[in-house]
Structure formats: C-alpha cells, structure tokens
Design goal:
five-stranded antiparallel β-sheet, alpha+beta, 3 helices, elongated
C-alpha cells in the first residue's frame, strides 16, 4: 500500500516561506521598475523622465566659431521642427548655448560650446515621447548641421 506524503508547501497559510518569497519578488520587481523608469540629464544641464543607461547623444567638432555652429544648428532645427527654448548656460568668454526643440513627437537638445579658439563642439541629444533614444534622428540632425556648415 502506498502512503501519500504532503510536503506542507501546498497548504494555504500553512507555510510562511511562500509569503516571504512573494514579498521578496515584489520588492525586486518594484526596484527594477525604479531603475528602468528614471530621469536622465540633458545637454542643457536639466533632466527629463526617460530610460537611463541608453546612448542618446552624439558630439561633432567643427573648425568654426561657436556663433557659426549655433546658427547652423538653429537653422536645421527650425527647418525640421519647432524651437521651444534657447538659453545661455555659461555667459562670458566660453559661453555655452543650448537649443531645445520638438519634432515629430521627439524632444531634441543641442549644445554648442567652444573647445578652443578655432574649434567648436556641438552635441545633439534626442529622446522619444516614451523616454527612449532615437539614434537615427540624432545622427541625421548632426549630419544636417555639418552640411549646413559646409555650404556656408
């Protein structure tokens, strides 16, 4: 004759280990959500809700003055979308200028600053409305800025 042996894990409320395991899993899940849905810094020294730890910006360096690079970036953003905000982060000799724009549900940030007396840096950053990165648009805008500078 066979005897059926119960482990005690199947009974409702008889074993506290199941409740502890579920609580631990819930804590891990909530912790993961906090890490995934966070804030990221933008190139204009602000932050926006987005998925962190994702590459979302590219830098280009050009042998032009910051004013020329800024004008080219502004022209490209006006042709492709709507400029929402322009700002100067570091007034003075080494001023850093930024542009914030929107295009097709994407948020775009552009930062222009001098590297030295002959070279300027432009950083383009693009995020989707859901917080993801759009590297294709980032590269396209970077390319359009370079072409605009080359034709001047």
């Amino acid at each position: 004759m066979l005897h059926k042996v119960e482990s005690g894990l199947d009974g409702s409320g008889l074993c506290a280990c199941i409740r502890v395991m579920k609580t631990k899993m819930l804590v891990v899940l909530l912790g993961s959500l906090v890490l995934v849905a966070g804030c990221v810094g933008t190139v204009n020294d602000r932050s926006t809700p987005a998925v962190p730890f994702v590459k979302d910006k590219f830098e280009g360096r050009y042998a032009r003055t910051p004013e020329q690079v800024y004008a080219a970036a502004e022209e490209v953003l006006k042709a492709n979308g709507v400029i929402e905000r322009e700002s100067v982060l570091n007034p003075g000799a080494n001023q850093v200028r930024t542009i914030e724009a929107k295009m097709n549900g994407r948020r775009i940030w552009v930062r222009v600053e001098p590297v030295d007396t002959k070279v300027s840096s432009v950083v383009v950053q693009v995020r989707t409305s859901g917080g993801g990165a759009d590297l294709e648009l980032t590269q396209e805008l970077q390319k359009q800025i370079a072409v605009t500078l080359a034709t001047r």
